[in-house]
Records
---
Amino acid sequence: MALSVIAEPPAQFDAWRAAQLQKAPVPQSPRLATGEQEFVSYCGICHTVRGTMAGGRLGPDLSHLMSRHTIAAGSLPNTPGYLSGWIADPQHIKPGNLMPMLDLSGPQLAPIRDYLETLK
Ligand code: HEC
């Protein structure tokens, strides 16, 4: 597990902290609303997104996923490509981790990934 330490002036840190404590943004289109619903159904048992029905605690809180530089405990840069690869097959990327491969099709995963990308 990798850990990044980011040192910031107090005001910048306080702004970051206040933003992290906010609920996740509300979906702004029907496609993103579908992504949120699918996320709650398939992923919410293990992940929390504050402000939604997803309240799982086994995996990381994803309320502000896109504010992170890396995912999977520093294993991957947090880019759309790596994020898609991770949710499609996390065991291939990090064997033995506690997120299972969910066997969702590309068309099922796409709205979920698009929704995740709004979680800034
Ligand atoms: C059975 C529980 C479980 C389910 C279901 C699950 N996850 Fe995860 N997820 C985890 C765990 C545990 C991790 C942490 C893995 C690690 O870094 O070792 C994780 C990590 C992640 C990460 C990386 C977050 C970060 O900051 O490192 C993302 C993104 C993610 N999951 C998305 C999803 C999506 C999208 C779904 C549904 C399609 C999903 N997960 C379903 C358990 C789960």
Note: Residues 30-43 form the longest helix (14 residues).
---
Amino acid sequence: MELIATCAFGLEKLVYDEIKKLGLWVIKKDDGRVFFEGDETALIKANLWLRCADRILVKIGKFMAVTFDELFDAVNALEWEKYIGVTDCFPVKAVSVKSALHSEPAVQSIVKKAVVKRLQQKYKTEILPENSNSVYQIIVKSHKDEFTVCIDSSGESLHKRGYRKKGDIAPIKETLAAAMVKLSDWTPDKTLVDPFCGSGTIAIEAALIANNIAPGINRKFAFDNWKRIDKKIVTDAIDEAKESEKPLEKLPVYCFDIDPIALKIAQHNAANAGFDNIHFKRSDFNDLDFGKFENCTFITNPPYGERLEDAAKVNQIYKDFGKKFTQTKNCSLFLITSNEDFPRLFGRPADKNRKLFNGNIKCYLYSYYKIQSN
Ligand SMILES: C[S@@+](CC[C@H](N)C(=O)[O-])C[C@H]1O[C@@H](n2cnc3c(N)ncnc32)[C@H](O)[C@@H]1O
């Protein structure tokens, strides 16, 4: 099977490396997508283990089409019956970019008709009730008239690990938090500090990585209800993942936030994820003794000023944080914000600056290696 891991722009290389680490054959990476080969075990493992990917798609076909007749014929020629049973659900979602067939609702409708016709012929029935609990979400993407047709095996996006039970003001996506940890210099023998922890996503993702816990171990996937997926392969992959967990007694992860409600949510989320050894404390970062932080890695997502605070207040936070940070000893900092002026406000240029997307917001991961105290 050809599989596609979709991800936020900027995370392709991380996803590429994660797939390789699973021992799978990677074909290529593209904007927001990594193409790889594998059987059903690969599909299950990719869903369970990829920390930075959004979805795992099964590629069904690829073709050029500039008329609705061409689209209908090409989709109708694909072997949908290999996947979709006579009672299964198969909603269609279309995305069209720079293509002659630009109307997404019209593309969706033609694709649906073409699949229905194929299945009616194959199952020799007029009636496809779509009333089973097996869902085969068809995703059709066209770019410059080239169509890629896939079925989504993940269901809910993979950033939904299952531990975040309550919403809060502006949480970072779990996939992006995991990416920040992977792009940092943190290793579990070092202290990790998040002074703006919010709902605790960065700390929890770091804990999952440190304990080698598969991010998808506590959630369901669309493929769970697919008849062609052997249940034994799924339970074997889950058992194998559980056996490979390496529970750490001590987890040097320290989280602070000024907001007591955010902190409560963070503790709730950490407990849901199975961690009672992450340290949470309510504090304004201005009141922390930064001189005590030595050889630590700071990974954090402060307010941006777009959704939470006004710009002037956020600028002051960045300036104050920069001053406080000069008191640390031999610490590194990996900070994400959409504010392009952050290095100036913080008081020094970043060693590295990487463009990443937090949902639709263009952000930068500013990396500072080993800032020495003045
Ligand atoms: C963008 S949110 C962090 C979201 C977090 N990464 C998550 O996953 O939920 C920024 C956080 O900074 C906190 N904050 C704002 N000013 C602060 C200050 N002076 N000291 C500590 N925390 C502060 C806010 O309460 C908010 O929770």
Note: The chain has two domains: 2-152, 174-213+237-371.
